[in-house]
Amino acid sequence: MDYKHLLFIALISLIACCTIMFLVWLWAKKVKNAGVVDVFWALNFPVITIITSFLSEGFETRKFLICGMFLIAELRLGLHLWQRVIGHLNEEEGRYKQLRKEWGDKADRNFFFFFQFQAISNVLLAIPFFIITANPLTQISILEYTGIGIWVIAFIGEMIADNQLAAFKKDPKNKGKVCDTGLWYYSRHPNYFFEWLTWMAYFIFALATPWGILAIISPAIILYLLLKVTGVPNNEEQNLRSKPAAYKKYQETTSSFFPWGKKDGRGKR
């Protein structure tokens, strides 16, 4: 495995992602909606996939498998976010409104760095992908098949969670209510859980490749971002602002991340 070549692919991917995010920042600045960053964060991964599929030197069947997994998952997420964000371009999501309010006059400058950080995170998270596509071994191992199986579960789970929430929000009768049906009955953020599980699948797939253990960085970063930075905290703050009583009750009975049974309101399951 030629690590200099891997670094070259990562550098090309970084330049591409940073350029895309710069253009997206210019657009976001014009339309005053920073939420577009979410859409292009997801769509940057297909860009990385295309670059890597042309430049990597690994076993073609393995490249086809992992490229297919990446493209299907991230295009689905990107299109879902496109419908959610671009479909309501004149209405910025609450978490970005709050950041804009907190940053004041420095909002545009801070969003520039925020967008670039998203581009950097794209490349860091693609580490399993870079490693896997460089693997020259011509036999697909049991670990790789296991990774594919977990990926299928995660992909279906995230798609179901997203569709359930979208359907709930479309119903005008649910205005001001909390979605607590389907997968949302077991977790306050099932979509985030299955997104993380997708990255765990890539990590397990990568373990069949020399130095694949390095791929642990991707699910670790995703878990940290979802639980501590841009995922759960921002989403919970927004929900508490928009529907405080209902969401507080939901918090008391429902697992934050991992799907689990309901609590009785006193912290017991």
From TrEMBL:
Origin superkingdom: Bacteria
Protein's UniProt name: DUF1295 domain-containing protein
Organism per entry: Pedobacter frigiditerrae
Keywords linked to the UniProt accession: Membrane, Transmembrane, Transmembrane helix
UniProt cross-references to Gene3D superfamilies, sorted A to Z: 1.20.120.1630
GO cellular component entries: membrane
PROSITE patterns from the UniProt entry: PROKAR_LIPOPROTEIN, S5A_REDUCTASE
Parts of the chain that traverse the membrane: 7-28, 34-55, 111-130, 142-161, 199-227
